[in-house]
Write a structure and sequence with these properties.
- The structure is a single chain.
- This protein is an alpha/beta fold.
- A hairpin with a 2-residue loop joins strand 7 (86-89) and strand 8.
- The chain contains ten helices and 25 strands.
- The strands form eight sheets. It has a five-stranded parallel beta sheet with strand order 5-2-1-9-21, covered by helices on one side. The protein has a five-stranded parallel beta sheet with strand order 11-18-12-13-14. It has a three-stranded antiparallel beta sheet with strand order 6-7-8, with no helix packed on it.
- Helix 1 packs parallel to helix 9 and helix 6 runs parallel beside helix 7 (194-207).
- Bound molecules: flavin-adenine dinucleotide.
């Protein structure tokens, strides 16, 4: 039996393992390896930060994976030999006929001087938990939501954080005593979709949120509590909510598979330059944003390609780089942007106005994945 080894049980790895199980579960042996004991949706971190969910309630334990033919192994990958398709973990060595690297992007907390001492971040569950404790005590002063580098996961998430912070402070009756600034390294909040960006910028203006476009936070000056931007200008803060710099996990960087920080792949097939080795999701350079929906779409193409190779069938169509991202506008309303990155000459995005119906749709998006991957 062919052995498929999937490194990383995030959005990409879970979708790949599940699709392989559905289409060729009795023809393949699939090992799904992750160092963690549970999966957490990225957007759940916003729920935890604003006290809408507890950390325990958003964890989906891998022990509940219920897809036939897939073996979950809680192990830490310590080295990858892409030529030999051999992986070493803290528990042993795995030889693969097909190897898929889906290890996501890690955070480089030390890459932004001062962030660890003077700031907070909401991109890890631990960071979101810490902010959930701090936010109730923030009742006056300047809050800065700041992105420390691009690329970063889920480009709309910092805008969502600023809008939800507005709601949180309004709900506590302290909004008038607080200022909110948002710093993003793009010219607009969601560059491929001018309509989404316009709606977000209008929402910022209505709520008195200062939008600082085209800048990133280069460092934090702990002594003066100031965010220093990449043009040398400064934003003083009383509370900093940061998006840390991202990078591929160390084990991927050490494997010799990366170029400019991430694993280059064919944007059509997700294959790396190493035969029988694919990379999907945030760890790969595909030409799409780092988001779960894109990792999931890429995983489906890889699954179809693995099955086609196994059965000598026709290869699947090219990966299209299409996905829908939900954008929280606050007050229980969610917008949606349908993005097509790769099929045309340039990326396009179609915006759907925020509504309660789309908030329900976002909820169904999460539940359908939990049900599919974890039999919930
Ligand atoms: C605040 C926030 C909001 C977001 N909102 C959305 C949204 O609304 N929609 C959306 O589509 N995306 C959203 N995202 C982005 C989304 O979470 C990621 O893009 C997505 O999870 C990427 O999937 P992946 O499979 O590439 O990597 P991941 O899901 O990050 O999975 C990688 C896995 O690899 C494991 N791993 C790493 N190193 C090792 C190692 N050495 N050994 C073993 N295992 C290892 C990790 O434990 C992890 O489980 C959001 C992200 C954040 C932070």
């Amino acid at each position: 039996m062919q052995r498929v080894v999937i490194l990383g049980a995030g959005f990409g790895g879970l979708e790949l393992a599940t699709t392989l199980s559905e289409t060729a579960g009795d023809e393949l042996a699939v090992d799904l390896i992750d160092k963690s004991d549970s999966f957490v949706f990225g957007y759940s971190k916003l729920d935890v930060m604003f006290g809408r969910a507890t950390p325990e309630s958003v964890r989906l334990p891998y022990a509940e994976i219920a897809v036939p033919g897939v073996r979950f192994l809680q192990e830490t990958v310590t080295s990858i030999d892409p030529k030999a398709r051999r992986v070493t973990t803290d528990a042993g060595v795995h030889e693969a006929d097909v190897l898929v690297v889906a290890l996501g992007a890690d955070y480089d907390f030390d890459g932004t001087p001062g962030l660890a001492e003077a700031g907070n971040e909401f991109y890890s569950l631990a960071g979101a938990e810490r902010l959930a404790e701090l936010l109730p005590a923030f009742s006056q002063g300047r809050a800065v939501v700041g992105v420390c580098g691009a690329p970063f996961k889920c480009p709309p998430a910092p805008s969502e954080a600023a809008l939800l912070l507005h709601d949180h402070l309004t709900g506590r009756g302290v909004r008038d005593a607080c200022e909110i600034s948002l710093v993003i390294p793009f010219g607009t909040p969601v560059p491929p979709s001018p309509d989404t960006s316009a709606a977000l910028e209008a929402a910022f203006a209505e709520r008195g949120i200062r939008f600082v476009a085209g800048r990133r936070v280069a460092s934090l000056d702990a002594g003066r509590s100031a965010a220093v931007l990449d043009d040398g200008s400064e934003l003083p803060f009383d509370l900093f909510l940061g998006v840390p710099r991202h990078r591929a996990p160390d084990v991927v960087l050490a494997s010799g598979m990366t170029e400019e920080g991430y694993v280059p792949v064919s944007s059509k097939t997700l294959q790396t330059v190493f035969p029988g080795v694919y990379a999907v999701g945030d760890v790969a350079t595909v030409g799409v944003p780092k988001a779960g929906v894109f990792a999931e779409g890429a995983a489906r193409v890889v699954a179809a390609s693995i099955v086609a190779n196994l059965r000598g069938g026709e290869q699947p169509g090219d990966y299209g780089g299409r996905g829908s991202c939900y954008v929280e506008f606050g007050a229980g309303r969610v917008g949606r942007v349908d993005i097509d990155f790769l099929s045309g000459p340039k990326p396009t995005g179609t915006f759907r106005e925020p509504s309660h119906a789309l908030a329900d749709e976002k909820h169904d998006f999460g539940s359908s994945r939990s049900a599919r991957w974890f039999a919930r």
